[in-house]
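I am writing to request your help with a piece of structural work I have in hand. Here, with my thanks, is the record as I have it:
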Amino acid sequence: MLTAGPTADAAPWLMLPLGLGTLVVSGALLRDLRTIAPPRGNGSFADLAELAPVWLLLALVVLLAMAMPALAVEWFRTLAAFR
């Protein structure tokens, strides 16, 4: 979120490659999720529930990315001000 705002202000067309890159990286991570922590069995709910720690970690990363500490937010704003 902090990189998207200044990017959109400077050059709105750069949002397209930024969004595309985010989708490609997220898709690659989720595609390889089964090889990182493969469930045992035939894909039933209980087998997929074994992946809960991985999904919880991904959810935590997304939550922390949106709720950055004030010091990190101020650092990004300072960098954006030098533009």
In short: Helices lie at 4-10, 15-31, 33-36, 45-49, 52-66, 70-81. Residues 15-31 form the longest helix (17 residues). The radius of gyration is 18 Å. Residues 37 and 53 are 10 Å apart (CA to CA).
